[in-house]
Amino acid sequence: MRRYEGAWDAIHHNGPDSVSQAAASLVELIKGALRESTSGDNIEAWIDSIGRPAWACDPKGFPTYRARAEFLLLKQGTPPRSAEACARSLTDVCKDLEEVKHGRTDASMQFVVSALLQFEAVLLASSQPDTPTP
Which domain holds residue 9? Predict the structure, then answer.
C-alpha cells in the first residue's frame, strides 16, 4: 500500500522529479503485488502445463512477471486471449516504466497515471471471487 500511495503522492505533487518517482513506486508496486499474489499458488505447475515456454521463466528459473500476471488473470476467469494480451501489455508498460524510473527516456506524467490505472484494473480483476484454477 505504501508504494501505491507513494505513486499517487508523486503524481499529485508534480515536482521536478515526480515522473521518475511515480514510475519507481509503480514498478515496485506492480512487481511486489504480482510476487505476493502468486506466491504459494500453483504457478509452477501451470507453467509446466503450458510447456514451460521461454517467456514464462527468467534466466534463474523463476516465473516472469508476465507469467505471474497471466496466471493471476486466468485464475480469476479472464478469457485466455484477454489474459495473455493484458499480461503482455502490463509487461511492456513495466519495461517502459523502468526506463522512466532510471531517466533513460522522457515520459509525461499522463503515461505514469495511465499505467497506474491499468494496474488498478488488473488488481480489480484479481480481487474478484475465486474461480477454478487454470
Answer: 2-126
